[in-house]
UniProtKB/TrEMBL annotation:
Record keyword Zinc-finger present: no
Originating species: Hibiscus syriacus (Rose of Sharon)
Cellular component per GO, a single term: histone deacetylase complex
Domain of life: Eukaryota
UniProt cross-references to Pfam families, sorted A to Z: Hist_deacetyl
Annotated protein name in UniProt: Histone deacetylase 14
InterPro entries, sorted: HDACs, His_deacetylse_dom, His_deacetylse_dom_sf, Ureohydrolase_dom_sf
Transmembrane segments: none
């Protein structure tokens, strides 16, 4: 199992939902060049920082390290992408890292069971352009000059998406962390015959790039994993990933029937989520037979979160992670990558992510 800890730019909306999307590819896959910019990420309690160099180097840990680990994670905090009093705070990832350290869930305490990817390649523009229009990608890169002059700019789109001078670079770091985790899960579990709100043309919500979809295309093109199952349990589940949020919106054109939207009424809690997962998601996944499961893991349904009206608890997220873990084990050799999405109460976010770690370590919920 892989857990990607990163800063996700998110939008709040009134409807609470849960969605599943499937991606099926018949394209031939190809190998990308390993010559990329490299990120060195070091996380120590509340500090997470990245430095960069340009080298041609295999950045992944050894096969033994990958195979021994129960949890592999990468931290890409986007510390420079920050707006005062904005829900999408650069404090989110450092808060999670601090909680993992305090709860003794890092390799310092767990040895080979937990592995942090501290060195990984940035995503290339080509990786991003497999999902987003090149005009949008290059336009965002060009806009960094304006952001550098003004300090903060609003990106054209349908939601309140902002950018600072580091946004483009840090978005490539976050996307690259996701691709490194896909590489890691495939390497650690060799294949036998086998975010989120961003849309292709531009930004949406608080999102710059749709990292889960970028990772899905990467898994298809680079590793030949044709059948990608995406589970999005964020409150504000990916608009334009499932195309719309209504239950009768099931995808378009060649993707018709590949999207399942499951909006939950306000006040829903553990029982509603468990029922939806067991009675709808599991049969859907069993029928699809995925090669890998990618998860948009939003923790903003927690009862303490300020942007939603659901009644989820830390135990709810433990249950979800546990169910997804077993689903991946049964259907695709355990290949599963979590991407951090929403969650804006630092305490509930940190504890919920930590409980997801507990799941994959085979330990009981911290919630008791």
């Amino acid at each position: 199992m892989m857990f990607l800890v990163r800063s996700q730019i998110q939008q709040w909306k009134n409807q609470c939902g849960f969605s599943v999307s499937t991606m099926l590819s018949g394209h031939r896959f190809y190998k990308h060049s390993v010559s990329r910019r490299k990120c060195v990420s070091k996380s120590t309690k509340s500090l997470v920082s990245c430095s960069y160099s340009i080298e041609k180097n295999d950045t992944l840990p050894s096969l033994k390290q990958l195979s021994d680990a129960r949890v592999i994670y990468a931290a890409a905090p986007a510390l420079g992408h920050n707006k005062e009093a904005h829900p999408e705070s650069s404090a989110r990832v450092p808060a999670i890292v601090t909680a993992l350290e305090q709860m003794e869930l890092t390799s310092k305490f767990r040895g080979s069971d937990v592995l942090e990817l501290q060195i990984f390649n940035l995503a290339s523009v080509d990786d991003v352009a497999n999902v987003h229009a090149k005009a949008y990608v290059y336009g965002l890169e060009k806009a960094m000059d304006q952001a550098s002059e003004q300090g903060l700019i609003v990106i054209d789109g349908s939601g309140p998406t902002y950018a600072t001078s580091t946004t483009f670079h840090e978005s490539l770091v976050a996307a690259g962390a996701g691709l490194a985790l896909v590489d890691s899960v495939v390497m650690s579990q060799p294949r036998t015959p086998p975010g989120h709100h961003a849309i292709p043309e531009g930004s949406m919500g608080f999102c710059v790039f749709g990292n889960v979809v970028i990772a899905a295309r990467y898994a298809q093109h680079v590793h030949g994993l044709k059948r990608v199952f995406i589970i999005d349990f964020d409150v504000h589940h990916g608009w334009k990933l499932p195309w719309h949020r209504k239950i009768d919106q099931i995808g378009k054109r060649a993707g018709e029937g590949a999207t399942l939207n499951l909006p939950l009424p306000g006040g829903s809690g553990d029982t509603a989520m468990r029922t939806v997962f067991d009675e709808v998601i599991v049969p859907c996944a069993q029928r699809f037979k995925p090669d890998i499961i990618l998860v948009s893991a939003g923790y903003d349904g927690h009862v303490l979160d300020p942007l939603a009206n659901l009644q989820f608890t830390t135990a709810t997220y433990y249950m979800l992670a546990s169910n997804i873990k077993h689903l991946a084990k049964d259907l695709c050799g355990g290949r599963c990558v979590f991407f951090l999405e929403g969650g804006f109460n630092l305490k509930s976010l940190s504890y919920s992510v930590a409980d997801s770690f507990q799941t994959f370590l085979g330990e009981p919920s911290l919630a008791g």
